[in-house]
Design a protein that fits this description.
The protein is mainly α. It is built from 14 helices and no strands. Helix 2 runs antiparallel to helix 3 and helix 7 crosses helix 9. The model has no long low-confidence stretch (mean pLDDT 90).
């Protein structure tokens, strides 16, 4: 897999034309298969990381043309008329530029979290009721999903959380895009740099205090926003929790048996997995588990 990804990254960086072709092809595919959006945005992000925001923006502007034409000629599924790339491309470029200028992954995660929180606030305040806004969107979107109904979202309580869940998913997708691009960059140009960099991801204590204050203040200012803020905070600190797991596993030399369980939890019980990792990440802000020295292993 590493070899395949390295070859793919080298293909992207072969030239502007190659990057444009890959970003646009994946972008058109993302209109009908959403995960492709992460790879399209990661291709743009890789260009931005290596060659700067200007070249990355040029690739985005060029790739946007065939994606828009494809959307007109072959309309996407209901609810996806505004492509996810409309959010991921700008976030990917901004993240790449911040990281390229010396900002750490923690700073990038803070910016993405702030953007997602701002988006949740804007939708809630402009619409007057985000649940009503997302219900109207769902009534349109479920037409393309066999057996899905808006009533199902209402009954399980998801509709009330939709604003925060969308912010959670967009933020997680944007940061995963950056991590993927950074991994590609490491494979091609800086072998073995990605792991240590991610393991050092740590949000500042002030950010935790601000997040707690926002969640508490929302209870009195605008109660509907409280869960939205909390979901975005969970997204941010879940990534720090993952960094803690990988950092401690590396220090202790535990191997795959140490970092695999959290990923299994995220796949099979995502709610528990995300909240558990976020709790670990939040506690790490105070405890800094990665400061402890590795346990010496006896010589064989």
């Amino acid at each position: 897999m590493r070899e395949i990804m390295r070859d793919f990254a080298e293909l992207i960086m072969r030239g502007t034309g190659s990057a444009f072709l890959i970003a646009s092809l994946l972008g058109m595919l993302s209109l009908y298969f959403l995960p492709a959006a992460l790879f399209s945005a990661a291709a743009v992000c890789l260009v931005g990381l290596r060659d700067g925001a200007a070249k990355g923006a040029a690739v985005v502007l060029a790739a946007a043309v065939p994606v828009a034409v494809c959307a007109v000629l072959i309309p996407p599924r209901p609810g996806l008329e505004f492509p996810l790339l409309g959010l991921l491309w700008p976030l990917a470029l901004a993240s790449a530029e911040l990281l390229r200028r010396g900002g750490g992954q923690g700073q990038v995660l803070l910016v993405i979290g702030a953007v997602c929180m701002s988006g949740a606030i804007a939708i809630e305040l402009i619409s007057g009721d985000a649940a009503v806004f997302w219900k109207a969107w769902l009534q349109h979107a479920v037409r393309g999903v066999k057996g899905a109904t808006v009533e199902g979202f209402e009954e399980n309580g998801t509709l009330v959380l939709m604003n925060g869940l969308i912010a959670f998913l967009v933020g997680a997708s944007a940061f995963l895009t950056l991590l993927l691009a950074r991994w590609w960059q490491s494979l091609v140009y800086n072998p073995d740099q990605f792991g240590p960099e991610f393991q050092q991801l740590r949000l500042p204590r002030l950010a935790l205090a601000v997040a707690i204050a926002l969640v508490a203040a929302a209870h009195y200012w605008h109660p509907a926003l409280q869960m939205h803020f909390l979901l975005v905070a969970i997204m941010m600190y879940a990534f720090q929790g993952l960094a803690v797991v990988h950092g401690v596993v590396e220090q202790r030399g535990i191997g795959w048996a140490g970092w695999l369980p959290p990923y299994i939890a995220l796949v099979f019980v995502p709610q528990i997995g995300a909240v558990g990792l976020a709790a670990l990440g939040a506690v790490d802000v105070l405890a800094n588990f990665r400061r402890f020295p590795a346990v010496a292993r006896p010589a064989s």
